[in-house]
């Protein structure tokens, strides 16, 4: 394939070095030999390192331990973890147990991040017993076809990484490495993909093997070539797809290095945040709590569910939300709300039944005629009886600090963490240690292409100042 000077320069920086690959392959061979010698499972290196589609600096090694499918799930977890721990402990003391569909081990060995994942040694991807059983088939499929397209994959990966749309994790909702590889295989190269994607609209449908056995309604559908019932791009949200389309359009119109090197996040100072909050004249409220002890793919969907449930709670109490978002750190999580106002009047209107429903209307009248907590009413409005009552929560912070919060439909693990303890902060008190990048991006929200164009403008100004 023919690459531009810009692309050739980028490839020169992002190709993994021979030393990098040799170090990881050498470690992988030793670990796989240890798995084999146990007599309990077979070992297999999978992922981008195995396929040589890893970007320079990526030091993530995925080793799968393939067990007999006759093992029960309980035995797979028990024997898999025991074997993984025995193997890893021969190299390092830095070992962590993580949880996905089932537990696996993560270890840091000679600066390399190693995942040791138990799975079943199934004959076909359609016969998987756990989600990870499919990965070895992905590895074989791509490895046998990627050939001379490795550089094309590297360029695409760097493109989506810089654009902020890389990663199938729940926080990113973007393009997985495997999806990038399949897109290159389908279109035959980086340029062909970019030119095609520039005209995409939500509803993209690709089926490399033309064997789809299930209908999907996701914004982007790429049928897994090893499993006709799976959408590889299920993680890609509508917003991330549109951002990718925007990036492709921008690159075709005016390519620049910023499409491959993400503009640095401008971390605001406390004074800048104070100025922005004062200028917006809105209300910021944050809730923080301990991060549940599960992987991001489990916690983040629960954070989003909880964010939506609490947004609904605020709306039911007539607080108007401008924007809301959530973030997860290793030790703490934050739910952040920007409200148009944080304090409402003491009076609220409560709608009752239609006047034409005598039984319910009579009960409503009887209840509020006798009440000494009525500002006005009952009276008729839009065909219904209504009454003006004192508002229970005038301040949004009081509502979010009340027992009403735990009565909402929070994510299971989030609810457990919040039931132990959570904190509510207002205004500048939301500027918490560790969350500065998240809040900075929230306050400076822009699309990926806008970030790139602004970076280009800044670069030109800097160049002019040096002349």
Description:
This protein is an alpha+beta fold. The protein folds into four domains: about 5-130, Beta Polymerase, domain 2; about 145-260, CCA tRNA nucleotidyltransferase, domain 2 (Poly(a)-polymerase, middle domain), CATH 1.10.1410.30; about 270-345 and about 395-445, Alpha-Beta Plaits (2-Layer Sandwich), CATH 3.30.70.590; about 345-390, 2-Layer Sandwich (Alpha-Beta Plaits). It is about 40% helix and about 20% strand. It has 16 helices and 15 strands. The strands form four sheets. Strands 1-2-5-4-3 form a five-stranded mixed beta sheet, sandwiched between helices. Strands 10-11-9-15 form a four-stranded antiparallel beta sheet. The chain has a three-stranded mixed beta sheet with strand order 6-7-8, with no helix packed on it. The radius of gyration is 27 Å and the shape is globular. The protein starts with a helix and ends with a helix.
Which terms would index this structure?
Beta Polymerase, domain 2, 4-stranded antiparallel sheet, Poly(a)-polymerase, middle domain, 467 residues, 5-stranded mixed sheet, 4 domains, alpha+beta, 41% helix, Alpha-Beta Plaits, 16 helices
Spatially, the strands of the biggest sheet line up as 1-2-5-4-3
Query: What about the largest sheet?
Result: 5 strands, mixed
CATH superfamily of the largest domain: Beta Polymerase, domain 2
CATH names the topology of the largest domain as Beta Polymerase, domain 2
Integer tally of domains: 4
Radius of gyration: 27 Å
Contiguous uncertain segments of 5+ residues: none
Q: Count the beta strands.
A: 15
